[in-house]
Design brief:
2 domains, mainly alpha, two-stranded antiparallel ribbon, single chain, globular, 9 helices, 264 residues, 2 strands
Length: 264
C-alpha cells in the first residue's frame, strides 16, 4: 500500500471524530453576548463541519472512480487538520502544562488511539506532500491582484481565529514567564503563529488554505525550503501587505524570487 492510500485511510479515521466536539454554543441557547474566544470556537466548529462535508464528497468521488486516491475534495480537511495539529504542537513547545507526544493518564483507549493516529497522519501528510507536491512555473498565469486580496483576508482571519482560540492556554504559565509578561508573550505567540502558518503551509503544500478556492500555488526557483523561508521572512516587511497593489507581485514574492500562480 502506497503512502497516498495510507494518508487517505488515516484521514477517514481521524476527521469524523471531530464531530464529538460539535455542539450548540451556550451563548446562543442562553441568549448571552459571546466572548472573543466563544466566537473563535464557533468558527472552528464551522470549519470542522465544512471539513467533514468535503471528506464525504471525497469518499463519494473515490467510490465513483473505484480507486483509492486523494481527490481535490480531500485537500480542505487535510489542510485544516494539519494546521490545527501543527498549532497545537507550537502551543506544547511554549507551555509546561501540555505535551504533544505524552498523553494524559485519564484518556480512554479509543481517544488515545485517535490522537496517536492523528500524529501519524500529520507525519504522513508532511512526507507525502513535500515529496509529491509540484507546480509548473507559468508566468502567464499569475494569480490576479483581486484574488490575492481575498487570499490574504482568508488566511489572516484563519490565523487570528486560531490565535484567539488558543492563547488562553498560557494563562496557567508559559516558558520564560519569569522574564517577560503575559501580554508581551501573547504578542510574540501571535507572531509565531503567523510566520509558522505561512512557512509550514507553503513549504509543504505550496499553498495556504486561503489559496485553495482560487487553486493558487507558490512557484519557486532554486531550493524549496530556502525560497519559502525567505518568502515568509519578507512578509514581515512594513507595508508588504499592500505592496502587490501596484503589481501582481508583492515584496515577499519579488525578494524571494517566487510567484503565486493559479492552475486551471
Amino acid at each position: 500500500m502506497n503512502l497516498q492510500k495510507v494518508l487517505l485511510l488515516l484521514l477517514i479515521i481521524v476527521i469524523p471524530y471531530d464531530l464529538y466536539y460539535i455542539n450548540i454554543p451556550y451563548w446562543i441557547t442562553d441568549f448571552q453576548f459571546p466572548s472573543v474566544r466563544d466566537v473563535a470556537d464557533l468558527i472552528n466548529q464551522i470549519l470542522t463541519l465544512v471539513s467533514i462535508t468535503y471528506l464525504i464528497v471525497g469518499i463519494y468521488q473515490v467510490i465513483k472512480i473505484k480507486k483509492l486516491e486523494l481527490t481535490p475534495a480531500f485537500k480542505f480537511p487535510l489542510y485544516i487538520n494539519f494546521i490545527q495539529s501543527f498549532f497545537w504542537f507550537i502551543i506544547t513547545l511554549f507551555s509546561p502544562n501540555y505535551s504533544f507526544f505524552i498523553l494524559i493518564d485519564d484518556l480512554t483507549l479509543f481517544n488515545s488511539f485517535i490522537i496517536y493516529t492523528n500524529r501519524i497522519l500529520l507525519l504522513a501528510t508532511i512526507i507525502y506532500f513535500f515529496k509529491n507536491q509540484r507546480v509548473k512555473v507559468d508566468k502567464e498565469n499569475e494569480t490576479p491582484q483581486l484574488y490575492r486580496a481575498f487570499i490574504l483576508m482568508i488566511d489572516s482571519l484563519l490565523i487570528l481565529n486560531y490565535y484567539l482560540l488558543h492563547f488562553h492556554h498560557f494563562s496557567g504559565g508559559f516558558i520564560f514567564d519569569q522574564y517577560i509578561s503575559l501580554e508581551l508573550f501573547n504578542y510574540i505567540f501571535f507572531l509565531v503563529f503567523y510566520f509558522s502558518y505561512y512557512f509550514m503551509m507553503e513549504v509543504i503544500f505550496l499553498q495556504t488554505i486561503g489559496k485553495l478556492p482560487f487553486n493558487a500555488y507558490v512557484s519557486f526557483n532554486g531550493n524549496r525550503v530556502v525560497s519559502i523561508l525567505l518568502r515568509t521572512l519578507f512578509r514581515g516587511l512594513p507595508f508588504d501587505k499592500i505592496s502587490f497593489l501596484g503589481d501582481k507581485k508583492g515584496w515577499h514574492d519579488r525578494f524571494s524570487n517566487t510567484t503565486v500562480i493559479s492552475e486551471s
